[in-house]
Amino acid sequence: MKHRKTNLFILLTILLVILFLADLTLGSIRIPLKDMINVFLGNSTNNINSEILLNFRLPKAITAILTGAALSVAGLLMQTLFRNPLADPYILGVSSGASLGVALVMMASALLPVIFISSGWGLIIAAIIGAALVLLLVVGVSFKVQNSVSLLIVGLMFGTMASSLVSIMQFYSNPDAVKLFVMWNMGSLSAVTWNYMYVLFPVILTGLLIAFLLTKRLNGLLLGENYARGLGIPIIQTRILIVIATGILAGSVTAFTGPIAFVGVAVPHIARGLFRSARHQHLLPACILSGASLLLICDIISQIPAHALPVNIISALFGAPVIIWIILKRK
Amino acid sequence: MQSELNLELNNGEMVCLIGPNGSGKTTLLKTLAGLQKPLKGEVLINDRLISELSQQEKALEIALVLTDKVQVENATVRDIVTLGQLPYTHWLGGLTDEGRKKVDEAIGMVHLKHKANYFLNELSDGERQRVMIAKALAQDTPLIFLDEPTAHLDLPNRVEIMLLLHRLAHKTQKAIILSTHELDLALQAADRIWLMSETDGVICGVPEDLVIDGSFNRIFQSDAYYFNASNGNFSMNYRLTKKLSLTGDNTRLYWTLRALARSGFYVTDDAETHIDITDKGWELNGKIHPDIETLLNELAGFTEI
Fold this sequence. Notes:
The structure holds two protein chains of two kinds.
Chain A: H1 2-25, H2 33-41, H3 47-82, H4 94-107, H5 114-118, H6 121-144, H7 148-172, H8 175-185, H9 194-213, H10 215-221, H11 225-230, H12 235-257, H13 263-275, H14 280-302, H15 311-329
Chain B: E1 14-18, H1 25-32, E2 44-45, E3 48-49, H2 55-59, E4 62-65, H3 77-83, H4 97-109, H5 125-138, E5 143-147, H6 155-172, E6 175-179, H7 183-189, E7 192-197, E8 201-205, H8 207-212, H9 215-219, E9 225-228, E10 233-236, E11 242-247, H10 250-262, E12 265-267, E13 274-277, E14 282-284, E15 287-289, H11 292-299
Parallel strand pairs in B: 1-6, 1-7, 4-5, 5-6, 11-12, 11-13
Antiparallel strand pairs in B: 2-3, 7-8, 9-10, 13-14, 14-15
């Protein structure tokens, strides 16, 4: 049993490295491995290749890894907290809050100063504010409610409210703004340039760190909240920490790349299936490795057509069959 | 719900908390366990208020087995029992050598060693309940509380769980408290009974004393059944309107009596109709019936005798 798990971890890590390199090589212009090494060593004479590689593909591949890891871990946290196999990172309404912020900037932009909109930070800041607002509301509620199911419903309600506000704005906006918003909604890994990476990287690292520090408590929660209390776990504090970690992970990803569907709900199941374990000391790293790999695969596939597809479409194509598989297996 | 409780509990004892539905068994257990605040009053553990203990400190005093359904995908028996050691582990939940030994011991005590690496969903209901008991044992607390540990189990499993808990209390010198509806099992297995009722509060004592002083009868009285102090069972109150006299050997006499009671007959010596149970069968009015069924068919014609 132990050997199998160690081998799996090694295999997944190798897979991740291979996919990372493949993601860098493949694309509308192929950059062979040899050229790639030259670019990284600073020996390249080909300026176009090094431009594409360093300023476009490298940040995109890193974003894919960060996003895949963040969404998968957030999904795992939600599934454990709510003891519901179909819970996902967006279930608390955090990304709906982010969408609301973005929609406000894109469609109600007449009210905002021009500089705010024209810089890329405008959207991101709006998304972060929107996500943080919903997160604060949900955390506030988690002090009040007795059980997590109520929290789940409240989160869903916040999300629905934010979505309908977005719909109202879409209804009154001009088609260009709506199209812009629809495009954002499809998610894009290439929007994260180095400038943004300095923010995204530490933020996601913080979220993952909180999740890892909760390992033991997450294991206790598997038995349900009453048993967890009996095992000495402070439930309310744990619940809030889980909500904050999920909010940071899902909120920041949504802010920088747009909402990316299905990775968060599907990967925890892949991790459980692969490792045949319920323990979070296995599942957390497994989610990080397989989530990052899955999103790299999605990114590689999305680049196959001449005009690269939004990553959200590909991830849904991958995720939906997994969900069907879960449902058929659970009968 | 309950006015004044002053309960006794000793190490190495199994206490059964029994009482009619709605008398507050689960409420009392949860309050004692610190899962809910006392409606009034206070709970003390080793002279400290339970409300002042942190969740972690409580976990070192009391281990729980609840009625909450435990359904964990991909978790083995060992995984679940290991969770009992959670209060003693660092943030990752890694076990010490001593902890690992405790887990192994706990699995052994509930006789699941051969299934330690089975997944939870491969076990029967009775085995799952034993897993949760092992988890509580692995928590290594002086007190174990169980809320209806025999609910949803068939009779052999109910008996086995009760016996197991009784043995564990004596062997580990822990105090084990459980709530149950299994009166006859509780009477046999419990060292002490806390008998709860809405009117009389909680009566505490050795089971046999409570039977003899009539407490059982008083608390569990109803039009439909009565507590039979002579055998510790609950018997249904049939409307007995017809009388018979009966002779025969012990075993068959007992079961014939039960069958007759169901049909509304009671047995008295001055009855006109007589049934004699012999080696050949049940003799009624000179006719021998080979089994109780034909006897009852014959008696069905009788109205008031």
